[in-house]
Design a protein that fits this description.
Radius of gyration: 21 Å
Oligomer: single chain
Order of helices and strands: HHHHHHHHHHHHHHHHH
Distance between the termini: 20 Å
Shape: globular
Largest sheet: none
Number of helices: 17
Strand content: under 5%
Helix content: over 70%
Number of strands: 0
Length: 439
């Protein structure tokens, strides 16, 4: 078991560093925007949470690559890996363009989503910058998931950290109009993020084509052609993961819309608690991604017992980091929140959300751990149904019920997250155990 812990930590720490870099950018974005104005922070909250559905649907669609490439890597099938990357790149590009078209429809529906009307002039240009950043997120994650599958988690980490550094610098220049640039406020933050998102796929593609270690995959990559059969196989393996991520983030985005019904102060406080909560999510994701790779390697050899042992080792590591993140929230939550704004009304409301934030950490850690373990087995269709039941049929109604009819407001919204996350965690665990007992 000790060796499994070491393998998970060895694979997971570069992903963790990359995720912490993303957290840093999220904090920097929201701190800079929040210090600019409460209206800008509230507008960013709405757009970020609405776009989380689109962005994570695209990221989820790339998740089908990791277990396939991981199993191929375990069997030494280098030509098949190159072919898989090329085919996945084409299919994911088409999917990202479809998502972009759908979000364009949301843009034209903005006035009908019930948000404070004074925020719409800030929301619209920021929304457009996010719209232009959907495709590069997909392109980068195709190569990132391939990299994870072949046990290289350090390259995506280095690229993400570099892009994040440039993103923060761009925020400093464009939000406030420093170094002779125009003062663009929230739109400046969007433009800086857009540049960073396009930089990532450009750099990782050059690495994929030029790095000597990737030579075994390049010939097959160049020869690969899309066929209906290949596209169908990728869609079948990727769409349930995409929908799982979309349903999960859709529940949070729906919560953001309900928070907007309560007012601009509530929406700004909601954004603060979501960004602080991402500290836990991103740490959990790094352990979950490493677990996926190792479960996929075991699946490549057809060992159900090894898949289960790997999954439990990943969960043990996950519980340890969950306890650490919860201690950070309890001991330093107020200090973290004070970095985002000096608006006393927003801070007073955000402080009341620390307990419900800590409450759902175990559910979040559990569902991430066993969702990623299940993903590693390649049996992904049940993930669609679990997410639909947990986040849409159970989570969203609870969010509305707690917030509006029961009168708990924003506190009720955050409390409702525990319902969907614990339910999803239990269902992912049960399904994973059932699937691996067959092999």
């Amino acid at each position: 078991m000790t060796e499994r812990y070491k393998s998970i930590i060895k694979l997971g720490w570069p992903i963790l560093v990359g995720q912490l870099g993303m957290i840093l950018v999220g904090f920097a974005d929201n701190i800079m925007v929040g210090r600019y104005s409460t209206e800008a922070l509230a507008s960013a909250s709405f757009v970020n949470n609405v776009f989380n559905v689109a962005i994570l649907a695209c990221v989820g669609f790339t998740y089908g690559i990791t277990p396939v490439v991981g199993a191929m890597f375990a069997r030494g099938e280098n030509d098949a890996i190159g072919n898989e990357v090329k085919t996945s790149l084409i299919v994911n590009t088409l999917f990202a363009l479809l998502v972009t078209a759908a979000m364009t429809g949301v843009y034209f529906a903005l006035p009908r989503l019930g948000q404070p009307p004074e925020l719409l002039p800030l929301i619209r240009p920021y929304f457009i910058t996010y719209l232009a950043g959907v495709l590069p997120v997909s392109l980068f994650n195709v190569f990132a998931q391939w990299s994870y599958g072949v046990n290289d988690t350090k390259t995506p980490m280095a690229i993400v950290l570099t892009a994040n550094t440039l993103n923060i610098l761009g925020n400093y220049i464009l939000i406030y109009g420093n170094l002779g640039a125009p003062e663009l406020g929230l739109t400046g933050a969007g433009l800086s993020t857009l540049f960073a998102r396009w930089l990532c796929p450009a750099v990782i593609y050059v690495f994929f084509r030029r790095a000597r270690r990737n030579a075994p995959y390049i010939a097959a990559f160049r020869r690969a052609r899309l066929s209906a059969a290949k596209a169908r196989r990728i869609v079948i393996g990727s769409l349930p993961l995409s929908l799982q991520m979309a349903f999960e983030t859709g529940a949070f985005s729906g919560a953001a819309i309900i928070a907007g019904w309560l007012g601009a102060v509530e929406l700004a406080a909601f954004q603060i608690i979501i960004v602080v909560g991402m500290l836990g999510f991103c740490v959990y994701y790094s352990i979950g991604a490493a677990t996926t790779v190792l479960v996929a390697h075991a699946a490549g050899h057809g060992s159900g017992s090894e898949m289960r042992r790997t999954a439990w080792a990943g969960y043990h590591v996950m519980l340890a980091v969950m306890c650490m993140s919860s201690l950070v929230f309890v001991g330093g939550g107020r200090l973290l929140m004070q970095a985002f704004t000096d608006d006393p009304a927003v801070l007073a409301l955000a402080y009341t959300l620390i307990f419900p934030l800590v409450l759902y950490q175990l559910g979040d850690a559990t569902q991430i751990s066993f969702a990623n373990s299940l993903r590693g087995t390649g049996h992904v269709v049940p993930m669609f149904w679990i997410a639909l039941v947990s986040y849409i049929f159970a989570g969203l109604p609870c969010t509305y019920l707690f917030a509006i009819p029961w009168g708990l407001g924003l506190r009720g919204i955050v409390l409702s997250f525990s319902v969907s996350l614990f339910l999803a965690g239990a269902l992912f665990l049960i399904t994973f155990l059932r699937v691996t007992k067959r092999t």
